[in-house]
Amino acid sequence: MLTLAGSSRVAGATVYRDVSWADGGRAVTSRFYVLPDELALAATPTSAGWTFYRYRGAPGTTDGGGLLVLTLALLAPEGVVDAVRAAYGLASDAAVEVAPPPVSASAARVSFAGESGGGELVTSVSAAGGAAGLSAVVVLTQDGAALVDQAVDQGLGALHVELDLAVSYVLDDLELTVWCDVQASAQVASDLAAAGQAGPAALTAELVARQLAGTTLRTARPLSADEQAAVEALSTQVLQSVVLPRLLDDGGAPRPQSSGLEQRADLTLTASAPGVLPVTRSANLALPDGPAHTVSSDLGGAGLRRVVRVSAVGDLAAYGIGVVTVHLEHAGVETDGTAVRRAADVELRPDAPAAVAVFDLASADQRLVHAHVAVHFTDASAPYELDLPPTDADSVDLDVDALGVIVVDLALVSPDPDGSVQAVVDLAYGDDGGPIEGRYVLDGSQPTARWSAVVREPPRPYRYRVTWVDGASRTEGDWASSAHQVLRLVPPVAAPAGTVTVISAGDFDQLSALVVELQAADDQPVTTLTFTAPDQAQTWTTAPRAGGYRARTTLVRPDGAHSTGPSVTADQPVLVVRDTLRLDVTVVPALLGVGTAVSRAVVELESPDHAAAHATVVFDPPAAAARAALRLADPAAREYRYRLTLCPPSQPPRVGDWQSASSTVLVPVPMPVTTP
Question: Are 177 and 266 in contact (CB under 8 A)?
Fold first, then answer.
């Protein structure tokens, strides 16, 4: 498993270590993942990494054009093995295995002379990439084809390529806790929906801003910039994939609240938890001179020659596809009644994902072409054959995802660092759950896996079942259906551990301290923890008990006044505490007409705790939502009052009446304003 810890720069590349957590102990292996800095043409003894198909029209016409087929690679620098040994202080004969980094997703972009489609030079671009590099097909106009000739002759760097990779890694020697106050967050989700501000993005931003959801990181060493970015990305990913589904349904609407709604959600990701590091590699490339890699055809002037582009852009090798053969046929009748049949065969391979076929037509208006496709797999199994509908289009583009192979990536989101929790994943494809099946065991030492199977048809939804194993305990889930190419698995909540982490969250501007009392049982001593600011974490160790533990918080105000809450029973290993008498209200000025009907709007808010000072929010153009902090006398009594004052241009201010509200998202409705 790739770890970001201990990464090193080697000439022209970044090198990452491979770590194993087998048997609960950390150990680095002899494998090193090498991520080169730049893309280069994937030249081999038999290929230059590019092929240019040029077709010329008759003089004075615009019928010509071209097809540029590219294969690029992230090539490891020469002498990388010796460089790795030197960078890590290894012996000259130490075993070193070099491998490309594991990639869970990728995207590729290619432009020629600044164009990527729909221009004077480039008609369209298709590109796809992976850990090894990318393949691309650039469809060129007549002028674009002429520029390729010029670029080759003069060595111009007219090609720009970019490859975005999602590099899979595991957190190593650090601990990330993602937490959420579910009850308070559910109220915010409901209030946002009532204010017309619903949706995952808006809810995530609001929860983080209110510190109702967040992350706490523990590490014994400084993090690199890559690690810090990866941890932040993982935090957002877990919030959106694990926490938000408890608050929002599939349509983004708030789930119904109930008194039984859990109080908090927390997920601690430790040494063997997977994450994704976004990486971009780019290059400006020149095509080396090589006439052997140019294929030319003349179209003539009678419109009787037909060019058909055939492509399968994607990572064919990752799908276990060795070669795709396409047999093209054209049938027609000449003006004298003579039947004409033309045929051409092209081969598509991982290093050459596109080709061109040229036909002599019976007449200019008879353009239909029939294509028969045969997909040959690297496991030497029987090919998948299919006939495509007849087409008169200039291209036959094959979807790699529909070439008879199903691929599903499995990821254990929160594996247990000591390796005790296992996820046994059964997968099945076909009628009645068969005959194609797979089984994978994921745990702390191996949290990811890929299921790939030849199905010889465009993949349909598959079925899967997860069985959780923890020592002698075994919990078997139900069979479910899915069409997703990635399955992220979250273990069920485990029994409470002997260590409880207490984290302070939210604003402390109305507090001088927050005191937490913890007790394992009535006959056990009370442990007191004191917090004076947010984002502080302390641990409490006790013997695990089936009934959980008792917790009570006391809020201490700057003036010495204090408020002690009730003693509650908890069982979660992460306890998030906050100022429970603070109520944050987001005021949305969407209906106030600031900058049009009025030049200023003022919203006064009166706290439920009448001894607290009023909060005032002033909106001047351009008006954006603002937040006010109110004080509660009782966490359960949230009703407050507000008053709106509007300032029309050239008129005295109009002061409204005091109104009651209880929502955490307030959208004031203005009183009528008349224009003189």
Answer: yes
CA separation for the pair 5, 14 (Å, rounded): 12
Of the candidates 51, 8, 56, 68, the residue with the CA atom closest to the CA atom of residue 33: 8
* Residues facing residue 391 across a β-bridge: 369
**Cα distance between residue 363 and residue 449, in whole Å:** 54
Long-range CB contacts (< 8 A, 24+ apart) of 201-206?
A: 203/244, 203/247, 203/248, 204/236, 204/239, 204/240, 204/244, 206/586, 206/665
Mean pLDDT value across residues 623-641? 90
User: How would residue 644 be classed by pLDDT, with cut points 50, 70 and 90?
Assistant: very high
Report CA dihedral (627, 633, 634, 639) to the nearest 10 degrees.
Answer: -50
Assigned token pair, 387: 């006939």
Give the pLDDT confidence of 49-103 residue by residue, as tens digits.
888 888 887 666 667 888 898 888 888 888 999 999 999 999 999 999 998 888 8
In order of 5, 217, 523, 653, the CA distances from 606 in angstroms are 51, 37, 44, 20
Token pair listed for 554: 């006391």
Q: What is the pTM of this model?
A: 0.59
What residues form DSSP beta bridges with 330?
Answer: 342
**Contact (Cβ atoms closer than 8 angstroms) between residue 427 and residue 463:** yes
Short-list 599, 604, 559, 557, CA closest to 582: 557
> What CA–CA distance (Å, rounded) separates 212 from 627?
14
**Can you tell me which residue has the tokens 């909106």?**
619
Residue among 73, 75, 89, 72 at smallest CA distance from 13: 75
Band (pLDDT 50/70/90 cuts) for residue 291 is: low
State pLDDT tens for residues 205-257. Answer: 888 888 888 777 777 667 777 777 777 777 777 777 777 887 888 777 888 76
Q: State the Cα–Cα distance between residues 399 and 397, nearest whole angstrom.
A: 7
Residue 57 in contact with residue 301, Cβ under 8 Å? yes
Residue with structure tokens 């004075």?
A: 60
Question: Which amino acid, residue 423?
Answer: A
Sign of CA dihedral 238, 240, 242, 247: positive
**What is the Rg, in whole angstroms, of the alpha carbon atoms belonging to the chain?**
32
Residues 379, 373: Cα–Cα separation, whole Å: 18
Q: What is the DSSP string of 250-290?
A: TTSPBPPP-TT--SEEEEEE-TT-EEEEEEEEEEEE-PPP-
Distance of alpha carbon 310 from alpha carbon 38, whole angstroms:
28
Are 602 and 619 in contact by the 8 Å Cβ rule? The answer is: yes
End-to-end CA distance of the chain: 72
At a CB cut-off of 8 Å and minimum separation 6, what does 603 contact? 587, 616, 617, 619, 628, 642, 643, 644, 645, 666, 668
